[in-house]
Amino acid sequence: MHKKQPNILYIFGDHLNPVALSCAGNSDLETPNIDRLAQRGVRYTNAYCTHPLCTPSRASMITGRLPSQLGITGFETDWKKEDLPPTLGRLLRDQGNYRCGWGGKWHISDHSLEDLGPPEPSDQDFGFERICGLDDNHLPEACARFLQVDDPRPFFLVAGFDNPHNICEADRNQPLPWGEVQDVPVDEYPNLPQNFRPSTGEPQVISLRRAQAQNQAVTPYSEERWRRYRHQFYRLIEKVDAQIGQILDALDESGLADDTVVILSSDHGEMNAAHQLFHKQVLYEESVGVPLIVRDPADTRRGVTDDQLVSIGFDLLPTCCDYAGVTPPAGLCGRSLRHEGVDSSSSAREVLIAETRLNNACEARMVRTPRFKYIAHRWGENNEQLFDLEDDPGEMINLAVEKRHANTLQKHRELLAEWCRSTGDAYAKHYTHPGHAAVPGVGWVELSPDRLKV
């Protein structure tokens, strides 16, 4: 049982695929340290990011807002310090008296966090002390030093790893920043995924993305090349799993583990050859899905899974605020994942939204319901997708092209329209209709004026 205000340790990777873990049943790699965290807590099997790209997703994590509401839809941001909304670090530091530290990868903006040392408290900083720069190899040691500091305040420590993002460098035959991956004979490479082929009725914008990526490839993408890619990706995950283990060991050795909630996730996933795609940005499960494990010493649940719809972008902030006894900002979409010892299934989320911007031009939205996933792309042929994730978890059959699924399709279109209407999400906006979103099968959706700037 932890104290009233527990310590909070948030560990997250970059590109960590939700099913690329041995605790998720994947036999192509071993992740003993992530597995032991899952054995001590709850693993969420339907967890998503808000936008499968590093900078937008990370901005969402620390604000609880959709990246498009923040004006962040790519690597470049127009996030001015004077427009900075309340951030997770600032909320816990200023209202909860937490000692907040951030180590490792930041990748949100170039503002105050990049300065060494604790920031001067203000409404224009992020609220974190920088304990370590971008360095996976030294991050565990920096976290251990942070844990050894004698301070009466509870702590909120973020450990942001770069890996397994190095799959991007590996794919381009570049040196790997945190150590190379040993190659093996071809017959030891993992096999191709069951959903290696493109889905039926694939949107034009995804086909274009695949063609552009493969045209720019250093070497052609044969099946052997794809299998080598998967081998490299899994070895990078094993590398970061070992480093995560060092942090968990340091927590145990500090004597603080019984008073510390540990959360593990990622900023987004990695396609890892599914649908013959790599990296992120698309709204397929491998890309928009993330691992999420919560180990709360006060929660009696151990080694269980929870299939409710959750979002690391929407839910991290209210969850941490709940543990810290801090009131989150009004108007956020997220909810706390803190378990109060009662059945929460009746209040489980029925609809979850995510967004992306493909090829630096085409907006898209995901509407996830308990059984189905709907994806709308702003332009192109076959710009809608509908998948029955119970019958088709690999997202191979696009039901949006079949008349017999028209009612389900229209229901999800209406859910997207209601989301846009109630939150001010100007999806697919057009200069001819300011203050409106454009939803397939619904048309122009007038947005609530008081929600246009959240």
Automatic annotation (TrEMBL):
Record-linked InterPro entries: Alkaline_phosphatase_core_sf (IPR017850), Sulfatase_CS (IPR024607), Sulfatase_N (IPR000917)
Alphabetized GO MF terms: metal ion binding; sulfuric ester hydrolase activity; transferase activity
Keywords recorded for this protein, A-Z: Hydrolase, Metal-binding, Transferase
Classification via Gene3D superfamilies: Alkaline Phosphatase, subunit A
Pfam families reported in the protein's UniProt record: Sulfatase (PF00884)
One GO cellular component term noted in the UniProt record for this chain: cytoplasm
Top-rank lineage group of the source organism: Bacteria
SUPFAM superfamilies: Alkaline phosphatase-like
Sulfatase N-terminal domain residues: 6-326
PANTHER family per record: IDURONATE 2-SULFATASE (PTHR45953:SF1)
Similarity remark: Belongs to the sulfatase family.
Protein name: Sulfatase-like hydrolase/transferase
Organism: Puniceicoccus vermicola
Species lineage: Bacteria, Pseudomonadati, Verrucomicrobiota, Opitutia, Puniceicoccales
